Predict the structure.
Amino acid sequence: MENKFGLVYQNAITENEVGKVNIRPVEYEIDGIKVSANLYLPANFDENQKYAGITVAHPNGGIKEQVAGLFAQNLAELGYVTIACDARYQGASGGEPRNRDYPENRIDDISGMVDYLSKLDFVDNNRIGSLGICGGGGYTLACAQTDKRIKAVATLSMFNTGRVRRNGFLDKDIATIQDRLNKSAEARNKEVNGEVQYEGETPPMTEEQLRNMMEGLPTGLYRDGIEYYGITHAHPNSTAKYTTASLMKLMAFDVEDRMDLINQPLLMMGGDIADTLYMTKDAFEKATGTENKELYLIKGATHIRTYWVPEYVEDATNKLKDFFGKNL
């Protein structure tokens, strides 16, 4: 049965019921652009109480109805008011051209979620934390570097988007940086004249075609990503494409550059066999501004599998329970 809220994760809310976690779709604006978000309210919610709040930022190509919603719901089950929004230019949020991926926008989207929570009478402004997943993890770290309204920051399967767009996955494409920058500059010229060029754009495929594509890939991020985004947790608003002109901004970004500015409690989680784990480890090592930090490895998990495999989700949720419980 189709979920009335568009949620595609396991055990998602289907109806708002008294005494249980409820979901409240909300809209607001950042710099005149509509943001579409889901607010999750704890069981037995009482507007006269004060709750700690947590923002949840989705992966690159992801949307609020997938893993970000899953963890927002899980954290609401623990008693937090949580919010997961679609990044501007993506999902159900506004912004043109579609799928523009500028780091400054993604970072400000997280501050925008903090703004929204801070205006709610039932949220304690001194107890707002942030969780970021995959690319949303990198942007959440970047946001926490300067937005000190965030009192505790956590990441799951953090993806340093700028480093990968610049250097390639596993830093294998450093030799082609200038070529790709030139391509991005040409794409921006086209964009100015109304022609938008995209990276990562693929034609619609059947499940059989997607599974055949998976067979040609080694186990890891890209194979698991096809399974998650194309088959098991597909959503029409979710896409891997982004504007080629975005590379001009993306390639100048690296979350590692200012990790020393994080002085808040920090938890970084990743699968111990994830091919992306090097990004979490490298950023964590540079977080020299806080002594309250922990690198937590989820045993047996790859990057994407932390999004949905029940035992890995449970492990991450339990760790977040402990972390936010101590620091919010």
Notes: The mean pLDDT is 97.
